[in-house]
Amino acid sequence: MTAFDDLMAHQRDTEALGQILGRLHWDQEAMMPRGASVQRSEEIAALTAVLHARRTDPRMADWLAQAEAPDDAGAAALRLIARAHARATRVPGRLASEIARATSIAQGVWAEARARDEPALFLPSLAEVLDLKREEAAALAQGTDTAPYDVLIDDFEPGATAQGIGAIFDRMRPRLVALRAAVIDAPHQPPTLRGHFDRTAQMRLAREMAGVFGYDFAHGRIDEVVHPFCSGGGQDVRITTRTAEDDPFNCLYSTIHETGHAAYEQSIAPEYRLTPLGHGASMGVHESQARMYENQLGRSRAFCGWLHDRMTAEFGDLGLGGADGFYGAVNRINPGHIRTEADEVQYNLHIMLRFDLERALVAGDLAVADLECAWNDRFEADFGYGVPRASLGMLQDVHWSLGLFGYFPTYALGNVYAGCLHAALLRDVPDLDTHLGAGDPGPATDWLRTHLQVHGGLRTAGDTIRHAIGTDPDEGPLLDYLEAKFSALYRL
């Protein structure tokens, strides 16, 4: 056994335990009885302590110093292990356990506060989590001049900074705001879907959509939750969705979105399982798959024509005047408060709001007690109407209860990456619409699997996208796509 072999054997068990921790989090959202939250927080804290001890094991420094990679995949694994080890050794085990315990409890408190529309119920937990994450950021930044928020972003999008992301957002915002204003004021407005749609039928169709987009049910399952997500990796990748009897699009497109995440995990090369390469390259790259499945593929005119026929078979006449009306209803730009239900034009504006607020929270420029007011003021300034209740505002997302500060901007980066990938896909598969019109996204998902998904964490985020598209990524293709699509849809 070489040092490399010893290190990879140690890492394999660490990865396996990490998968078990992920399953505990999945169960907490999907299956766990409500009364088990305190005990679950102790279970999660205990397993987090075990994982932290493994990631900071003194032998790892020796193994890393002596290990010689046998190939490019081995070199990438060493890079990722060394990075994770360096970060883990800066965070005291006590702090890692406290964060795990506090966020597990805060998640339950958030869910109750959201259900009751009582933000005051959540604020003490949020303040505790925020303090712990600041402490973690300070530990990680020790000896450097890195800003705390940049340290937290690095957990999800290594190498990204608030300054760099802010510059992208500054370039995107004027075109997005102008496009939003133009479509809202357009004389032609697409129809709105109305009616009652049975939840059981929605879930039946959602499962079909997951299969159409390549989800492997032999290695996964779908459940209903409050906030849809994807969990797991390798041979056990689970997705969730939600239903609303007056809005089947919420269920179907949440399912397609999470299928994009799951397809990435299920498509990673089998030899990378239970290694550092057996995950997506970054959260931004991961989000690019989910957003592309959901939007550029699932909301395309061609695929909507096929989906219209499936929905009318399931629910009867939809009152939209046929496939064109259905396409308009799927992509209609509506006033709304919920990020996960936002259309393609407004979605990134929701992210920019959260990016600015959480950056201010971490920096100490915004007090937790003032968050609801700051959210409501910023939302009205950006969208032109108020927030009637907290469940439609600061309580709508689970992320802050989980301590995921720095996660939100990766959603917008995912959209940027998706725009670049879509442009490259159209270049390489010029007859894509013919396949989508037949309900077959296979040529697109095969292209993504081959050019991106199979490689997992082999490359950095930027190199992953560059390898897939052949150029550096930028926001131009996304904005061009949005302007062309919605100008045609709204007859601008």
UniProtKB/TrEMBL annotation:
Domain of life the protein comes from: Bacteria
Molecular function (Gene Ontology), one example: metal ion binding
Pfam families xref list: Peptidase_M32
Cofactor note: Binds 1 zinc ion per subunit.
EC number: 3.4.17.19
Keyword annotations: Carboxypeptidase, Hydrolase, Metal-binding, Metalloprotease, Protease, Zinc
Broadest EC class assigned to this enzyme: hydrolase
Residues reported in the UniProt entry to bind Zn(2+): 257, 261, 287
Cofactor list: Zn(2+)
Transmembrane region(s): none
Database matches in InterPro entries: Peptidase_M32_Taq
Catalytic reaction list: Release of a C-terminal amino acid with broad specificity, except for -Pro
Any single biological process term in GO: proteolysis
Catalytic site: 258 (proton donor/acceptor)
SUPFAM superfamilies recorded: Metalloproteases ('zincins'), catalytic domain
Function: Broad specificity carboxypetidase that releases amino acids sequentially from the C-terminus, including neutral, aromatic, polar and basic residues.
Family: Belongs to the peptidase M32 family.
Protein name: Metal-dependent carboxypeptidase
Annotated organism of origin: Rhodobaculum claviforme
